[in-house]
Amino acid sequence: MKKLFPIVVFAAILCSCGTASQVTRESQYAAMYNDMPVTILVMPPINNTSHVEAKDLLYTSISRPLAEAGYYVISPLLAMDVLKAESAYDAELFIDKPLTLFRDYFGADAVVFSQIDDWTKKGFGIETKIRYIIKSAASGEIIFDRSCDLYLDLQVNSGSNSALAALVELAASAIVTATTDHIVAARKANYFIFRDIPRGKYSPLYMQDKEVIAEKKDIRATVK
How many CB atoms lie within 10 A of CB 59? Predict the structure, then answer.
């Protein structure tokens, strides 16, 4: 019994250390819970890559995961028309400026900015690196900040080990990579980022998810 006691104590210490290292959503996204935004405006992404279509591809796919998380997202099509008419389509002009004009004009509580730092074909896939920031329209403070390094693997694998099958898979992978809409990569990146966001007012989990263990702020993932 005496020999067993130190082992039990050691195991308890390990468990307590593991629990202590876990961070809840309330702790990681405290500013989000304090601000409690309801209406969100998504700004066109800041594109730092040579892939000119990446900006529009990402922009059209950000709203859905936010809406599914319980937020009212202003229609991207409507917002884009207004932003272009007001010469406000370039988000980099506003990311470090007061955002009260978006609150007054759109009734937005928060504004979503995204920055694309990588969007390239690599091997038989698409590699993306995107940072997402949500700022309070009232205070201009950052209330949500995460980044995602995502590799979308488009390689075809039939499970066969024959040389002919390998050759067919190689050709099929090349075709898939060349023809697959890059919107898939954008949707995957947005899903991985916003699946951990505190739930909004229109979600049944609103203010009930504070004790959920938060994911890492910076994500690296390979997905099919």
Answer: 20
In a domain, 70, yes or no: yes
CA distance readout (Å), 130 to 61, 137, 145, 168, 197: 13, 22, 11, 33, 16
DSSP state letter for 223? E
Which structural domain range is residue 108 located in?
Answer: 24-120+129-147+183-223
Residue 37 lies in a domain: yes
Beta bridge partners of 132: 114, 146
Q: Which residues contact 198 (CB under 8 A, 6 or more apart)?
A: 25, 29, 32, 33, 209, 210
Number of domains, the chain: 1
Give the SS3 label for residue 35. Answer: helix
Antiparallel, parallel or unpaired: β 125-136 and 110-121: antiparallel
Over residues 33-44, the pLDDT tens digits come to 999 999 999 999
pTM of the model: 0.80
Residue 9 is predicted with a pLDDT of: 42
- CATH code at position 109: 3.40.50.10610
